[in-house]
């Protein structure tokens, strides 16, 4: 049974998170995630492609309690990034960028807000406790934790989604030594739907809830640093950075509400192929400063743009 101070502190944390504009907040216990073995099998089957960083720190990845000493709780937040897609400004040859990268880099935006939350917690809660803020790059399974914290359920496309807002949201966490009251997971509602599995152009889902990342356009365009196997070229269509197809077809994303938290940068949803193909390293860094798109280097975007140009030229 949680004691009164745990109940009070949980109320304070959730109130502060809401005040700071997080769209959802939930608490998970800092303990091993439900599907510890799944990660091992996934890595053994080489479904991570060349993302070798996922092989490191496996013990931490599957148990957030190993991230900081005496960790008791994980505060999980969701930040909506849904925006309506603007039409391309002209008829020039352009590629498509996934929605998560249309505005400022979410790593910076979400982390800054999490740090404010951690500071506010220290101001309001008299106990002594430590915190570690995480967004994407820290070795934890964010979706498993989000599921435990009741942020949403893990869909067949492996993304966390909920009935109110679909799946277009980022996840962030504060792992803390503070004892808080854990939430219950929500009920999953994928039911008999298979829209995401059927729509994936590269067949990246060997079965529901399982992704072969080495076939995902998001991996191929952002993470894969060498030439892309020709068998994927047609399927990439006009995607030069990331892919949103398995979210676009999800019925729950009809309920997504647009946010102004990540104002769209010029040229972002539909960058000119000429620009991507002609930029050197320095120009690339300057043009994409402060954007999640810098994860791909100039050469990778050139590679992606050349494939997309060929696809555009061949389509009727
Ligand atoms: C590596 C990575 C990728 C890789 C691999 C994706 C993958 N599925 O693993 C690539 C580059 C392909 C990728 C793509 C994208 N990513 Co990414 N990615 C990550 C990262 C850094 C690690 C994920 C990881 O550990 N994968 C390991 C494998 C084992 O996990 P998994 O395949 O998801 O498997 C889990 C479930 O499927 C589940 N499971 C297995 N069997 C079963 C059975 C049942 C019944 C159930 C319910 C579950 C279940 O257990 C597994 C372990 O948790 C996380 C951040 C983080 N630190 O967690 C962001 C993260 C998952 N990515 C994110 C985003 C936004 C994207 C993209 C939408 C970006 C884009 N538009 O291009 C796409 C979406 C593609 C997709 N359908 O998942 C968000 C997702 C937010 C959300 N709402 O869920 C995260 C959480 C980043 C963040 N902080 O917001 N990503
Ligand atoms: S992001 Fe695109 S390529 Fe990757 S699994 Fe989803 S639909 Fe398939
Ligand atoms: S498209 Fe259907 S199966 Fe896929 S995540 Fe959405 S509801 Fe679940």
Task: Describe, in plain words, how this protein is organized in 3D.
α1 packs across α4. It is built from eleven helices and eight strands. It is globular. It is α+β, with helices and mostly antiparallel strands. β5 and β6 form a beta hairpin. The strands form three sheets. The protein has a four-stranded antiparallel β-sheet with strand order 1-2-7-4, with helices on both faces. Strands 3-8 form a two-stranded parallel ribbon. A two-stranded antiparallel ribbon has the order 5-6. Bound molecules: cobalamin and iron/sulfur cluster (2 copies). The site of one iron/sulfur cluster has 10 residues, from α7 and α8.
Question: What would the keywords be for this entry?
Answer:
globular, two-stranded parallel ribbon, 11 helices, four-stranded antiparallel β-sheet, 316 residues, alpha+beta, binds iron/sulfur cluster, binds cobalamin
């Amino acid at each position: 049974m949680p004691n009164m101070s745990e109940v009070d502190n949980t109320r304070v944390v959730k109130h502060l998170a809401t005040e700071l504009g997080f769209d959802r907040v939930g608490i998970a216990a800092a303990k091993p995630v439900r599907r510890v073995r799944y990660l091992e099998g996934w890595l053994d089957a080489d479904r991570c492609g060349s993302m070798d960083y996922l092989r490191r720190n496996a013990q931490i990845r599957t148990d957030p309690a190993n991230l900081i000493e005496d960790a008791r709780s994980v505060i999980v937040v969701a930040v909506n990034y849904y925006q309506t897609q603007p039409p391309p400004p002209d008829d020039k040859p352009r590629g498509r960028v996934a929605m998560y990268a249309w505005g400022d880099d979410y790593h910076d935006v979400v982390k800054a807000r999490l740090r404010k939350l951690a500071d506010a917690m220290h101001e309001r809660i008299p106990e002594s406790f430590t915190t570690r803020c995480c967004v994407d790059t820290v070795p934890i399974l964010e979706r498993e934790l989000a599921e435990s914290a009741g942020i949403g359920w893990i869909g067949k496309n492996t993304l966390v989604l909920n009935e109110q807002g679909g799946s277009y949201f980022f996840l962030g966490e504060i792992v803390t030594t503070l004892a808080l009251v854990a939430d219950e997971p929500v009920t999953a509602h994928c039911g008999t739907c298979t829209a995401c599995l059927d729509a994936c152009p590269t067949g990246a889902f060997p079965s529901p809830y399982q992704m072969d990342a080495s076939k995902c356009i998001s991996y191929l365009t952002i993470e894969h640093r060498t030439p892309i196997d020709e068998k994927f070229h047609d399927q990439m269509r006009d995607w030069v950075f990331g892919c949103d197809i398995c979210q676009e077809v999800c019925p729950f994303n009809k309920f997504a509400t647009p946010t102004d938290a990540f104002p769209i940068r010029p040229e972002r949803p539909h960058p000119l192929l000429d620009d991507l193909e002609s930029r050197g390293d320095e120009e690339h860094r300057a043009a994409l400063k402060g954007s999640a798109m810098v994860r791909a280097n100039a050469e990778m975007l050139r590679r992606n743009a050349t494939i997309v140009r060929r696809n555009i030229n061949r389509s009727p």
